[in-house]
Amino acid sequence: MLLEIKNLHASVEGNEILKGIDLSLRPGEVHAIMGPNGSGKSTLARVLAGQEDYEVTAGQVLFNGQDLLEMEPEERAREGVFMAFQYPVEIPGVGNTYFLKAALNAVRKHRGQPEMDAVEFLKLVRGKMKLVQMDEGLLNRPVNEGFSGGEKKRNEIFHMAVLEPLLGILDETDSGLDIDALRIVADGVNTLRAADRSFLVITHYQRLLDYIVPDFVHVLVDGRIVRSGGKELALELEEKGYSWLEGMAPERAAAQPVGA
Amino acid sequence: MPVTETETAAGVDRYLAEFERFERERTAEPGGLRQMRRAAIERFAALGFPTLRQEEWRLTNVAPIVQGTFHRPESDPDSVSPDLIAPYTFDAAARLVFVNGRFSARLSRVGELPEGTIVASLAEVLAREPGRLEPWLGRFAKFDAHPFVALNTAFLSDGAFVYVPRGAVTGPIQLLFLSSDEGGKPALSFPRNLFVAGENSQATIIETYAGSGPYFTSPVTELVAGPASRVDHYKVQRESLEAFHMATFQVQGERAAAPSSHSISIGGALVRNDVNAVLDGEGIDCILNGLYFGDGRQVVDNHMRVEHAKPHCASHELYKGVLDGKSRAVFNGLIHVHHGAQKTDAKQSNRNLLLSRDAIANSNPQLEIYADDVKCTHGSTVGQLDEDAVFYLRSRGIGAEAARSLLTYAFASDIVERIKVEPVRRDLEEFLFARLPMGEVVRQAV
Fold first, then answer.
1. Is residue B250 part of a domain?
2. Would the CB atoms of B391 and A73 count as touching at under 8 Å?
3. Confidence at residue B1, expressed as pLDDT on a 0 to 100 scale
4. Coil, helix or strand for A64?
5. What pLDDT, in 10s, does the model give residues A90-105?
6. Whose CB has fewer CB within 10 Å in chain A, the N or C terminal residue?
7. Yes or no, beta carbons of B386 and A89 under 8 Å apart
8. Domain assignment of residue B247, yes or no
């Protein structure tokens, strides 16, 4: 297992948002998490990335067999967890490429790889930019500053491509994207799919899953996974809406045994 | 601790007595200068040291200066080893070095300059041809309301005189003021600088203040930016952390001049920078930027006063501060638009980043506008690092400390980038890399 989430409970400011999540990802799998607004999808992503606003009150998360929740956010990143933000942060004064080089070298150092020099790095970056059709001008700008919504999301996928994580978490990466931008982002992700890389794709809409076809779909309602299935579950949801599942008793993810 | 009245009186008396000794040493001086000194010391005697009850000083307590004992230097300024100045100097068109306020010919170097350009010790010019300074010296930095300008004028004896004639363009001119104690006696110095840029001339002047141990230095610099001149002024204040630094920079702008000032304030225990610009001709474009760092118990006070005296002038001020430990910063920015100064375009911005709970920043913008067709804006902020940005950087693998340092650097970077003299900019960058935790990561990432 790459990721094992067991009975995860998490709160923010005393309100319980996640009420017992069980989920496992094998290397190479793409899992989609769908659910209505406020169901806890983004909370799940942020808890996995290590955002400190959320308090884990119960449960366990293992990443490659290690206790993920014990790790600082930067350790998680270095171990191979990457979250593409729903709202990428603008950071005036920090150049996009320079920052990314520092990040990549932090990751490489952790993995016992030698640091990359500027020339090697630039070569790498040029190749990765093509994945998401990034404009070269965006490289030399401060991180996300003045980027359009689509450019920010592409920049996230670009960062992911450079950092080559084992687990990519896409937190509503499709929100606010027009169909062309969505296709570019999805193509980028699809190129990154690999036998040793898994994805957790969090989305409100089925549309993204037309382009990033998941192996499994889970439906999150009120902090619990109420239904799991194959990619056809997304289509069913599209047809029937979330109200169909709301109020449903939680069920264990059927697609794979948990804690087995 | 607020200073008692007895202590203040004793402090003032010490300077008055010192002045009597000082004046007796100076025999062959022109009468005009003597008169100005007299007027200044009398004014100081009347004003006394500033107190917290005075509006202009209500947040900056100068008690440590009032209570301290400082000595006018006695040792030979040429006796300082060149190794001591090496960390602060760079390859400039001309470099003057002052040790505890006195010119060192041995450490100074004036290369080739455009014809008619003067870069010299003020003491030498005063001795040789005082009439040369007459039209400007002491005419702009007013001492009637400012005790430290009064003291500086009373004790005026050395500093730099830079004169750039009409149409001339000079390379960077560096003025280094090095201070220290002398055999355990904290030094007292009153550097006095006069820069005159002729019509349509261009100059870059860098004042650097540095030193070791406890001392008190109180410089006054007057800049006369002639018609259509362009003067880029930099002041790098990296005094010892035990030093007191009370400075005034006075800009007099004439028609279509473009003076700029970049004030970097890093060192000193207690620092005050008064920057006053009088835009006294049409079409002046004045830029006043500043960056200050505080840590420990450092106090840094920047007092700006921009006077729009004539129409069609622009002034842009951007001051940023980074405060850590128990440091404290004051920013007071006054823009005064005179009656009839129409089409004034004045912008002022002060931003403070607090890195600790105990650091304090006071920001006080003031507008006084007596014309009706003007554009004046001001903004001031006091805030902390954006935690979302910290998390974003960490989520990409950057360590927590490095992320904070990177964002701190980024906060300061727009001032750093405006420094056009490369060695000055590089020095500041190096300072930041050394000062910020995990500075090596920052070096890589910017």
1. yes
2. yes
3. 59
4. coil
5. 998 888 988 999 999 9
6. C
7. yes
8. yes
Of A83, A91, A110, the CB nearest to B410: A91
CB contact under 8 A, B441 and A49: no
DSSP string, B227-266: TT-EEEEEEEEE--TT-EEEEEEEEEE-TT-EEEEEEEE-
My answer on whether B261 and B398 are in the same domain is no
Please count the other Cβ atoms lying within 10 Å of the Cβ belonging to residue A15: 8
In this prediction, residue B6 carries a pLDDT of: 84
CB–CB of B411 and A93 under 8 A? yes
Give the residue numbers spanning the domain of B446.
385-446
Which residues, including other chains, have CB under 8 Å from residue A113's CB and lie 6 or more apart? none
Q: Do A93 and B392 lie within an 8 Å CB cutoff?
A: no
CB of A106 within 8 Å of a chain B CB? The answer is yes
CB within 8 Å: B396 and A99: yes
- Count contacts between A and B (CB, < 8 Å): 93
Q: Does A77 touch chain B (CB under 8 A)?
A: yes
For residue A246, pLDDT beyond 80: no
Question: Which parts of chain B have pLDDT scores under 70?
Answer: 1-2
Q: Is residue B37 part of a domain?
A: yes
Looking at B280, B307, B328, which one is the last position of a domain?
B280
Q: Show residues of chain B in contact with A143, CB under 8 Å.
A: 392
Q: Which of A95, A102, A142 sits opposite B398 (nearest CB)?
A: A102
* E strand residue ranges, A64-197: 66-67, 81-84, 91-95, 142-143, 167-171
Contact between chains at B413 and A99 (C-beta distance less than 8 A): no
Per-residue burial over A163-191, b = 16 or more CB atoms within 10 Å of its CB, e = otherwise? bbbbbbbbbbbbeebeeebbebbbbbbee
User: Is B256 in the same domain as B404?
Assistant: no
- Of B255 and A249, the one with more pLDDT: B255
- Whole-model pTM? 0.91
- CA nearest to A99 within chain B: B445
* B112 within domain boundaries: yes
Q: How many domains does chain B have?
A: 2
Residue carrying structure tokens 């008692």: B4
CA distance A84 to A122: 22
Who has greater pLDDT, A137 or A153? A153
pLDDT for residue A256: 46
pLDDT digits (tens, 9 = 90+) for A3-31: 999 999 999 999 999 999 999 999 999 99
Q: What is the CATH number of domain A3-244?
A: 3.40.50.300
Total residues belonging to chain A: 260
C-alpha distances in Å from residue B413, one per residue of A125, A203, B291, B416: 24, 37, 10, 5
| All structural domains of chain A with their residue ranges | 3-244
Q: Which of B407, B414, B446 sits opposite A95 (nearest CB)?
A: B446
Using a CB–CB cutoff of 8 Å, tell me whether A80 touches chain B: no
Q: Which of B253, B280, B307 is the last residue of a domain?
A: B280
What does the block give as tokens for B282? 């049409």
The answer to whether the beta carbons of residues B135 and B161 sit under 8 Å apart is: no
The distance of Cα B377 from the centroid of its chain, to the nearest Å, equals 24
Instruction: Answer for the pair A10, A48: CB distance below 8 angstroms, yes or no.
Output: no
Q: Do A78 and B397 touch (CB under 8 A)?
A: yes
Nearest chain B residue to A159 by CA: give it. B396
Closest to B158 measured CA to CA, from B108, B129, B120: B120
